[in-house]
Write a structure and sequence with these properties.
The protein has 348 residues and is an alpha/beta fold. It has 2 domains: 119 residues, no CATH class; 207 residues, Collagenase (Catalytic Domain) (3-Layer(aba) Sandwich), CATH 3.40.390.10. The chain is 37% helix and 13% strand. It contains 11 helices and 10 strands. The strands form 3 sheets. It has a 6-stranded mixed sheet with strand order 1-5-6-4-2-3, sandwiched between helices. Helix 2 crosses helix 5. The protein starts with 16 loop residues before the first helix and ends with a strand. Pfam families: Peptidase_M10. Keywords: Hydrolase, Metal-binding, Protease, Zinc.
Length: 348
Amino acid sequence: MSPEAQAFSVAVLFPDRAAVKRAVDLLIPMARKAAEQTDTLVDDAAVDMLEALHKSELAQEWVASEVSRQDRIPEGALAVAVMPDAVKQDLVRQLPTADRREAFLSGALLERALSWGLPLLLQILERGHAMTAPQQILVCGNKEPASNRLARWDKTPWNGTGWIGEPVAVQLTVHAPDWCKLATIWAVREWMKVCALEVEWESNPRAASVNIGQGPIDGPSGTLAYMHLPYGPDKQLDGKVDTSESWHKDPDSSPGRDMIHLGAVLCHEFGHALGIEHVPTSQGVALLNPMYRPDVLRPQTLDAEQAVYRYGPKLATPTPDSGDPEPGLATIELSAALAAGVYQLVKQ
């Protein structure tokens, strides 16, 4: 079984109250930093929830017991519903305002506070770091919801039961060095393996429907890249890759320690261009989780379901004697400095 398909165990992270408290100690400064960087991950309310959990020994004991029993983080309204009254009241006393208390009792605040940090803690442990100091947060910088949660990149209307019309090909421009173009090709091909996506390479950025560039965003760590979601008719979708990061540029090999797989990040961002919002970590492991995971490089089951819902299942490759052109074919010229030749995006 590949690392991407393995189920991770959370019980080993929180065997007792002391472990929960150490984890919360670690998450609070990370959450504060994340709240400053992007509102898709965590906000000030979730920070308040973590700080309340840090103060409540009863809540720490309850979280540890629930994780041990279920091998999962307690989630949302269900967790609050089964929480003993004494624990619930102790947490309510620690929250600073009435609206925070109301959000906690509805379950939403607890879910945001607990579920977002799990993949990050796993990254820290998998990389061999001790949980003793704040670690880097690697996130997508997308902050905006789609104007329509069922959005497709071409803004094709949804009539309540199906799409009106077939999706048209994506015109894609990458205004970046060859290494970024090659990683983009790899990323797009990964999406073409799971849905009926057609991509055309467009040399003119003004004529493209999706434009990917590079440049500084916020320095090393933090925001890795961003991509707009479909948000209106005839709006070009712009994305950007942060040049300050330590990128692993070869998408077909594994990154070294503390290197970030560029192909995986571009694959995530292109998913946004297709109309897919972030998948909450509480729903499971997905490429479109807000935080970068080094073991998730391509669309997972949750991502593929969203892509197929919008674009249909992957098209079969035509037989050689059909006379039809390869569906979804795109070409791009790369300079001799990288590997001269014509690269093709071909469905497999």
